[in-house]
Design brief:
Layout lengths: L3 H25 L9 H22 L23
């Protein structure tokens, strides 16, 4: 949890969560963008983002987080020499 990679991955998840929840709130009412209560929409997206960060911190002790843009899924290949 105290590494740069952890915080890069957490920041990526936070930005992704913010964008997804903001789009969900904006499209849920299917209203004109000029009629949206922006303060409420941004507050909802901010709360979802906070929950994503807290989830990442809580899951840090449970093991390695899943792959994201800042993480790789490649495994080191070892070859046996006879």
């Amino acid at each position: 949890m105290f590494t740069t990679d952890f915080w890069k991955a957490t920041a990526e998840r936070a930005v992704r969560t913010f964008a997804q929840s903001l789009v969900a709130v904006l499209t849920a009412g299917v209203t004109n963008l000029f009629d949206v209560e922006w303060q409420a929409a941004l507050a909802t997206a901010g709360l979802a983002t906070l929950l994503a960060v807290l989830t990442a911190i809580g899951a840090a002790k449970a093991g390695r987080p899943g792959p994201g843009i800042t993480e790789t899924t490649e495994r080191a290949v070892t070859s046996e020499v006879s």
